[in-house]
Amino acid sequence: MNRFIAIALRHCKPVIGLNIVLSAIALYSASKVTEVWAARAKLILPKSSSDLNANLGTLGDFRDTGVAFSQQVNPLNNLSSIMTSNDTISQIWESDPEKSLYPRLSVYKSLFDVSPEGESTIISLSAEGTTPELARQRTAALIEAFQQRLNELRQDDAVQRSQFMGKELEQAATNLRQAQAALTAFKASSNLVSAEDQTREMVTAINTLTTEQAQVLAQARASKARVEALSTRLELNPEQAIRSLSLGENQDYQFLRQELSEVEALLAQTQAKFTNENPQVQALLEQREELQGQIEGYIAQARAAQPGVNATIGQESAVLIRELILAESQTEAYYSQGKQIQTQIDQLGSTLKTIPAAQARLVQLQQQYDIAEGVYNGLVAQVQQSKLNAFSSYPSVQVFEKPRADSKPSGPGRRPIALGTILASVFGSTAIVLFLESRNPLLSLQDLQATNFPVLRSIPYVKHLVVGVPSRVETEIEFQRLASAVSMKPLKNRCLTIASATSGEGKTTVTLGLASALITLGFRVLVVDGDFRKAELSQRLGCDRYPMSKAPLTPVQIRPGLDLLSLRPDEDKIAEFVARGSFEECLSTAQASGHYDYILIDSAPVSLTSEAALMATVVPNILLVVWPGKSNRNPFRDTLEQLARHRAEIIGLVVNGVDTQAESYLYGHKIAEVGS
């Protein structure tokens, strides 16, 4: 279970990223899901019980035999097709208040359902809407549009039946349809409804944005002037002000300054009583110099990151620095807002330039349509008498049940979105973890067994270990056992390199623990900081204040029996320092001068640097630190290959981060678990 948790935590960032994306998609989809209501109505086709014969005088005879039903031709199916046709639905679509939500007519048609009832002359129809009232309005509009479409079809039928339809009428109808289609298509493509209103709205929007931009830029200039005024008053730029404020708020720095003030006050009192040669005066002078040196160290560290840092800021200056930082942030925000407003102004200006040409084309198409419509109406007026028998082809349909909306919404709602998001999160997270883990899996105890290297000791998890600071009893015991095992190994020149594949596996902690345990056994130990880039060992022991070029080349005593050799070559010459023998020479000199029983070298990660493997040619004895459940398998194997190529001798493994309740030990080159 711990391994699964470690794998999950290891890949938590991509998993969290995936779940954030899925959650965003789900929230967006849920926000787009609206409750849907349905409204229903019924139409009925009256069936005539007798034939009608009438003499219309000069207009001729009219004979109506009623509506004929058969298995091959069902008028209800024809009427249903007319009701769901594009022409009928488009009339509703054009006036629908939510037309923008349905850019295509085919999508809008899915809101309607029309079906004839079996063995009757009734047609059931329904329409959906985001509100009950909208659903009812769409149902009523469908009935109205259907009636209008029936009338249009009757008129077309009358025109086709007319004896006076000739070439002129056909040409007029063609011209009218073409003009109407061109006008409709142009309106749909240009989205131009009212050029004057749209132009007025765009000009108003541009003026508003221009005024807003001027105000924002004025605020930006005022904020910038405030930044410059504060910088001049403080004699610091914003970066220097931030560094100065950080230094002034550093609790350690404040404590040292307070301590220095107290020492100086005590020194003044002591000097009033004694001469400067007095031991008390000398001790206070040395204490003052030490405190001043530490304070100068903080100041130098701050000025190294940003020259010109003011180390003497007071409470009033701190308030001004905070105002300076706030003013600088506001200035950047105002300028960014001004750029965004300018982008909006440019977009509106580009759109505004296209309106005059579109308006001219719209007027032209409207005139063509009006002319075609006038010609057509004049010709149609001559054949109105043919409409007397139009109802024989398209019978009259009456409303049987008026449109009525359901009281409750219909549809699946947001539950499928939530379920789909959960499933996608589970399967997606599992797939990501499995994929990433297959590329670079964690190191396991089985991988350690496959190496055939002895495990000298398993160390419980300890965050940091500093020599001289008490640690847990079980940790001290494990390090003492490790020291005992190391003391039994025949080491060349009594030198041992503690290495690891990557950073964070505990090699520095093991180095300090092993050194402390060897001192407990009575040995004199020299620890060498071989991580020339980070120098973590020197930092742990409090000897990291030297620059690279001024680091001492002689050991520094940390405590009785323990010395530190901190080597800090130039970063671009680290490999040369090891390969050309300078590192070996430093070790030999230190060993000859100190008469050490053991020299422990805390090296850099082998798979991340080149000098770690080169150091194996100088000190071939390697103690490799691993952390199952945290170390990666591929860097571990790469480390073993590099050490083998440089003929290093791995005397054993130290398994780090083992639970104290279940120790890992090696018996007959096998790792087993026993209760503590």
Name the structural class: alpha/beta
Instruction: Kindly estimate the percentage of residues that lie in beta strands according to DSSP.
Output: 5-15%
| Molecular shape | elongated
Distance between the termini: 20 Å
For the largest sheet, list the strands in their spatial order: 7-14-13-8-12-9-11-10
CATH topology of one domain: Rossmann fold
* CATH level-four homologous superfamily name of one domain: P-loop containing nucleotide triphosphate hydrolases
Number of helices: 21
Going by CATH, the architecture of one domain would be: 3-Layer(aba) Sandwich
At the first level of CATH, the class of one domain is Alpha Beta
Radius of gyration: 45 Å
Helical percent range? 55-70%
Low-confidence stretches: 56-60, 466-471, 661-676
Q: Can you summarize the main beta sheet?
A: 8 strands, mixed
Overall pLDDT confidence: 76
Please provide the count of β strands: 16
In short:
The protein has 676 residues and is of the alpha/beta class. It contains 21 helices and 16 strands.
What does this structure look like?
This protein has 676 residues and is of the alpha/beta class. Among the domains are: 252-307; 445-675, Rossmann fold (3-Layer(aba) Sandwich), CATH 3.40.50.300. The protein contains 21 helices and 16 strands. Strands 7-14-13-8-12-9-11-10 form an eight-stranded mixed β-sheet, sandwiched between helices. Strand 13, helix 21 (633-645) and strand 14 form a beta-alpha-beta unit. Helix 2 runs antiparallel to helix 13 and helix 8 (195-234) packs antiparallel against helix 12 (315-380). It is elongated, with a radius of gyration of 45 Å. 24% of the residues are buried. The model is unreliable at 56-60, 466-471 and 661-676 (pLDDT under 50).
